[in-house]
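Case study.
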Amino acid sequence: EADIYQTPRYLVIGTGKKITLECSQTMGHDKMYWYQQDPGMELHLIHYSYGVNSTEKGDLSSESTVSRIRTEHFPLTLESARPSHTSQYLCASSNGWNTEAFFGQGTRLTVV
Amino acid sequence: KNEVEQSPQNLTAQEGEFITINCSYSVGISALHWLQQHPGGGIVSLFMLSSGKKKHGRLIATINIQEKHSSLHITASHPRDSAVYICAVNFGNEKLTFGTGTRLTIIP
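After joint prediction, the assembly is written out as follows.
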């Protein structure tokens, strides 16, 4: 069973609000990732981190930001939510190159 | 461009049937992952392989490096196998590139 957790599972929020999606893992993994997935579509990498104080933007441009102050915690923040941010956001972690990836349950975000 | 293609996009079968889902990729890879996503949205890793074949219960994954192709097989399929199956690859780095998924529905 994967020890990676995302909260909240579902979030409906108004335009202009600031939101933070939480992701935590208890496996001590250095590598953590945020993916965005629209319904019926493939996952796209929006942020990744290879360790504490290391964050990089992914292949898909995103207005969100991330931080990695602790190994186990990789939160994603949207300063001002917009309807175009409506999507599912999945967090994942791995122990390194060519190792199994563990995924959280996802946060389904709706901005109204 | 590094690409991953899956087929079929949708598959409906009767309970008990043998299921095959295919994945092809454009250039050499360091590893290929098969993932399962249920309607709730969470993703579970089924297999990671870089050569040969792996088996877990009723699931079998194979990869042919020369042909740049992998298959996921499900024997004696069951309605609880209904999910989206996703192929993802490492193109020589730690980031994953994903296929669009195969939506499998098993009818009792």
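Observations recorded in class. The mean pLDDT of chain A is 93. The two ends of chain A are 34 Å apart (CA to CA). We will return to this complex in the next lecture.
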